[in-house]
Write a structure and sequence with these properties.
Helix content is 40%, strand content 17%. By secondary structure, the protein is α+β, with helices and mostly antiparallel strands. The chain has a six-stranded antiparallel beta sheet, sandwiched between helices.
Length: 254
């Protein structure tokens, strides 16, 4: 298999093809990264028949990665005694950079190092997600699955601990119902929502020219460069293979 950086793959001109699944995404990417647009547009298409390996941009690669993640963590999910689902958010941002993502992850690391958290949680896994809201502000949040060891750790204490670290943000902290753990994990690693165009002209173009709404290429550029190479999935505690104690962190690149 040829590497993706070979001239035969990355330097082909972008040729619009509305019949291809990733056409809308590739059309927005072409405005600032033509070679990446070609890769995404031709994901598993002739003449390459190879994945683009862009799970944040390509829904097909995202679903493939999701299945791998479920299979990888299935045995740890099955051993969970008291699974809880937690969502952590921070205040919305008008701009998105790598600094914002790194800062959010540092806040999560600080929460995990909280002594009460270490005593009460056996382990878990989280995925950081970025989403552009209707207001045009970026929302950074994390979906966390925890194996709770101490039932006295409740939502008010978690909310207070998160507020001390972020200055006040939304938090959900609820037990996972029996039989739904695999679904919750799949939801936590679901495909990324990409920023859609909001202007009237772009919306009209979507109605008359495309089957799916066009993407905002400027916000997509912002999202792509902020998240490029960012490790957004991480396990800790007894989710790290072969350990029942709190070992070093292990991150999963996507």
């Amino acid at each position: 298999m040829l590497p993706y950086n070979t001239p035969s793959y990355t330097h082909q001109p972008f040729l619009p093809d509305e019949q291809k699944p990733n056409y809308t995404i590739a059309k927005a990417l072409e405005m600032f990264h033509a070679s990446l647009a070609t890769r995404v547009l031709n994901c598993w298409q002739a003449p390459y028949f190879r994945p683009c390996k862009q799970p944040r941009l390509c829904s097909g690669c995202a679903r493939y990665r999701q299945r791998l993640q479920v299979g990888k963590h299935e045995r740890y999910l099955a051993k969970m005694g008291t699974p809880y689902f937690m969502t952590l958010t921070v205040r919305c941002k008008s701009g998105l950079t790598r600094w914002h993502l790194d800062r959010f992850r540092k806040k999560m690391t600080s929460l995990r190092r909280w002594r009460r958290f270490q005593r009460s949680v056996r382990g878990g896994v989280y995925a950081i997600e970025v989403k552009l809201g209707d207001s045009g502000l970026w929302n950074i949040h994390a979906h966390v699955i925890l194996d709770l060891a101490d039932h006295t750790l409740a939502k008010p204490a978690m909310r207070a601990a998160w507020k001390r670290r972020t200055g006040g943000s939304h938090i959900d902290f609820e037990p996972i119902q029996a039989g739904t753990l695999a679904w919750v994990f799949s939801y936590s690693t679901k495909p990324q929502e990409l920023p859609e165009a909001k202007s009237i002209g772009q919306a009209v173009h979507a109605l008359v020219g495309q089957k799916t709404p066009p993407l905002d290429s400027d916000r997509l550029r912002e999202f792509y460069w902020a998240t490029k190479g960012f490790r957004n999935t991480q396990t800790f505690g007894n989710f790290n293979a072969g350990s029942g104690v709190m070992p070093g962190l292990r991150r999963t690149r996507i």
